[in-house]
Write a structure and sequence with these properties.
There is one protein chain. The chain folds into 2 domains: 2-68 and 373-425, Urease, subunit C, domain 1 (Roll), CATH 2.30.40; 70-365, TIM Barrel, CATH 3.20.20. Helix 6 packs across helix 9 (290-314). The strands form 5 sheets. Strands 1, 2, 3, 4, 5, 17, 18, 19 and 20 form a 9-stranded mixed beta sheet that branches. The protein has a 4-stranded parallel beta sheet with strand order 11-12-13-14. Strands 6-7-8 form a 3-stranded parallel beta sheet. The chain is α/β, with parallel strands linked by helices and 440 residues long. The protein contains 11 helices and 20 strands.
């Protein structure tokens, strides 16, 4: 394999360390489908002992910051607009698979090199992950939760692919069925949410302690993490008691709940973007009832304040980026994952810590830190180039200038290294109708 030398760059490693100001990063560039990339050197330019050969690419990255590819660890690849209810599938499995695949692939255009599917249908997410592993397809890494598990009549009971259960035995059976299907993690809908028709559903737990403990016990027996949709103190405290690993959303948290979360060292995926409800496309909001849109907006400031309490106690530790939207959905004309990083800074993280949440922290949650998530020798070359200093000004993260996935260039707008969009139709890079806005 040939090598690519990225020199005169700033380097943010994904571990929360200060940027290397006069950096050099060397990666192996695969030339065959079966080859994988790796980072060969990362550090100061002055200390790099690797010497480029005449046929190898040397890129001057003056003015750019390199960072790991971003994660979005709360995505529903099934997302479409309008949102069909009562488990209706107007598309059928073949066409729905293509919808999933497009949603998955186009995340690369927004700098997202790994997705955690947080509840989908038909086993399509597992199929895509397997195809990626066999190099039948190419796109972001994919960590799968399969079908969401919930109580009868619980949150999202109307959605395609949900598994409804009552009692410990049924919850255990549902977890085992998903493990048998090959999922990486388990997803529970533990409480009501902003999209429920009845407002009171947000403020209760829908799963009993006994049911939650049974689900977690089976998952942990098989070394699978459990993620849970959570909206309020009652549900969050129950989820922590029974062993849920990853707490999603957490719209309302009082001081007792925050302390319980911190004391029990749980992962937190705030999804501040979805309650911000500042979507750039009116069609996205039009697909949701005005009641739900208003409730999202009403809860947003409380949501930010709840997450801020956790940040005040433990900084960026175990905080990850997820949006509950597609990575290509735009908020304030900004890709959702980038916007989430901005929201995390609003809640109290420093810009450098927000980048850590979007990279190294999320790789740890997804249990693939041995492969990606940091700029470290031996890891895969999943790399972004950002014009400016996003570790100092988080809005610079909007200046996405290059995406590299496993040592392969997706696109590059660097002045010294112009590369057109690869592996995807070129017009996708400037496409106005991506994500849920596609008229499926």
């Amino acid at each position: 394999m040939k090598r690519i030398f990225l020199t005169n760059v700033r380097i943010v490693d994904g571990d929360g360390n200060p940027a290397i100001e006069d950096g050099c990063l060397v990666v192996s560039a695969p030339e065959k489908v079966e080859e994988d990339s790796s980072i060969l050197y990362v550090g100061s330019k002055a200390e790099c002992q690797l010497v480029p050969q005449p046929e190898e690419q040397v890129v001057d990255g003056t003015g750019y910051t390199l960072m790991p590819g971003m994660f979005n660890v709360h995505v529903h690849l099934r997302a479409t607009s309008p949102r069909y209810q009562f488990k209706c599938d107007p598309y059928g499995t073949p066409y729905r698979t293509l919808i999933y695949l497009r949603h998955h692939m186009e995340a690369l255009l927004k700098g997202v090199t790994c997705i955690r599917g947080c509840g989908d249908s038909h086993g399509i997410d597992v199929a895509i992950r397997k195809a990626l592993g066999k190099k039948m397809l190419w796109g972001p890494r994919l960590v799968t939760c399969g079908k969401a598990i919930l109580p009868h009549g619980g949150h999202a009971n109307h959605q395609l692919g949900s598994l409804e259960c009552s009692g410990e035995a049924q919850f255990m059976e549902a977890v085992r069925s998903q493990i048998n299907d090959g999922v990486d993690q388990i997803k529970l809908f533990y409480s009501g949410g902003a999209s429920d028709a009845a407002g009171a559903n947000m403020f209760t737990a829908h799963i009993t302690d006994e049911e939650g403990a049974a689900a977690c016990k089976v998952a942990h027996m098989h070394h699978k993490k459990v993620a849970a949709h959570l909206s309020n103190d009652v549900a969050i405290q129950s989820a922590i008691r029974v062993g849920v690993d990853s707490l999603e959303h957490c719209y309302y948290m009082n001081d007792e709940t925050v302390q319980m979360l911190v004391d029990n060292d749980r992962w937190l995926v705030p999804t501040l973007t979805v309650t911000d409800a500042n979507h750039s496309d009116p069609a996205w909001l039009g697909a949701i009832s005005p009641f739900v849109v208003q409730r999202l907006r009403d809860v947003h400031q409380i949501h930010v304040e709840s997450i801020a309490k956790v940040i005040a106690k433990r900084g960026a530790e175990k905080i990850c980026t997820g949006t509950d939207t597609l990575p290509t959905d735009l908020f304030d004309d900004t890709p959702a994952t980038t916007y989430e990083c901005e929201m995390l800074v609003e809640a109290g993280l420093t810009p450098l810590q927000a980048l850590q949440a979007a990279t190294g922290n999320s790789a740890d949650l997804c249990e693939i830190a041995d492969k990606t998530g940091r700029l470290k020798v031996g890891l895969s070359a999943d790399i972004l180039a950002i014009k400016g200093k996003p570790d100092q000004n988080i809005r610079d993260l909007r200046n996405l200038s290059m995406v590299m996935r496993d040592g392969r260039i997706v696109f590059s707008k660097l002045e010294s290294y112009q590369q057109p969009l690869q592996f995807l139709p070129p017009e996708w890079l400037e496409c106005d109708t991506m994500g849920t806005r596609v008229p499926w």
